[in-house]
Design a protein that fits this description.
The complex is a heterodimer of chains A (131) and B (126). Chain A is 50% helix and 16% strand. Chain A has 131 residues and is an alpha+beta fold. The longest helix of chain A has 24 residues. Chain B is mainly beta. Helix content of chain B is 8%, strand content 46%. In chain B, a hairpin with a 5-residue loop joins strand 5 and strand 6. The longest helix of chain B has 6 residues. The model of chain B has no long low-confidence stretch (mean pLDDT 92). The chains are: A alpha+beta (131), B mainly beta (126). At the A-B interface, helix 2, helix 3, helix 4, strand 3 and strand 4 of A face strand 5 and strand 6 of B.
């Protein structure tokens, strides 16, 4: 089914540029607009306050985790630690207990880590399928 | 287990259904496009990652996604359990607000025996 939407106050110059670029690339105006709307929504999500709050919480949790690792690394090696929004929740004997505790928290984000295991920087390769 | 290819894409593309454990929904079913060019486990849109509360079970390590143009982006990564019928695996779920795809990458695919039956447009897990 075709959806027809009438939009007021569209800038004529922008519309002309959209139309010519879309036609050069073999897109219909509708397809080009759908892509543009998707991109606009994604960009807004990426810079939303909620997302930035999440990033701040994650940074705080990473710092706290470093502290906990230094403090309990030898004593509790192999046990699991939970840090939520930069707050130390506890040390647990197994992963299941740690996950349960993280899931019950009302936090924005939690890190569940095994004490004594190195914290690394990993690379994940994307193919063209991601575009 | 057999999964039909997505025929809305030209040429048709193999996809599979995987259930993942999440803090919000215990067995959430995802339909993932098979992407051997993606080295991670599972990629989902950030909106879904957030909705499923996967941020509550994140891993301590930082994961960087390298885009095909060579640009690195910091990913959100949770470790969870994925299941396909009786098969169960530990797998990383990655996400980023600027990526809107649902993909099954090599970390997951390499744990499976998969037959891509192109002429039948069917993916079979052996």
């Amino acid at each position: 089914m075709r959806n027809v939407i009438v939009v007021k106050n569209v800038d004529k110059n922008l519309y002309r540029r959209l139309k010519s670029t879309a036609s050069l690339k073999g897109y219909t105006i509708g397809e080009a607009l759908n892509e543009a709307i998707k991109l606009w929504l994604m960009l807004n999500e990426a810079i939303s306050r909620d997302y930035l709050d999440y990033l701040t919480c994650r940074e705080r949790s990473e710092e706290k985790l470093k502290e906990i690792n230094e403090k309990y690394c030898k004593k509790c090696k192999g046990k699991y630690v939970v840090v939520c929004d930069g707050i130390f929740i506890g040390i647990f004997d197994n992963e299941k207990e740690a996950l349960n505790s993280a899931c019950k928290s009302k936090a924005r984000e939690c890190i569940v880590a095994k004490l004594g295991e190195p914290i690394k920087e990993e690379k994940v390769e994307f193919g063209m399928g991601v575009l | 287990m057999k999964f039909k290819y997505n025929e809305n894409v030209k040429p048709p593309i193999p996809k599979m259904k995987v259930k993942i454990w999440t803090p919000k929904i215990k067995d959430y079913e995802l339909e993932l496009v098979v992407d051997t060019g993606f080295s991670g486990g599972i990629l989902i849109p950030y909106r879904l990652y957030d909705e499923l509360k996967l941020a509550l079970v994140e891993v301590p390590s930082r994961y960087f996604g390298i885009l095909p143009v060579g640009i690195p982006i910091m990913l959100h990564t949770a470790l969870t359990e994925a299941s396909i019928e009786k098969l169960k695996f530990k797998v990383h779920v990655h996400s980023h607000p600027l990526i809107n795809k649902k993909l099954a990458g090599r970390e997951l695919l390499n744990q499976l025996k998969i037959l891509l039956n192109g002429p039948k447009r069917e993916l079979e897990i052996l």
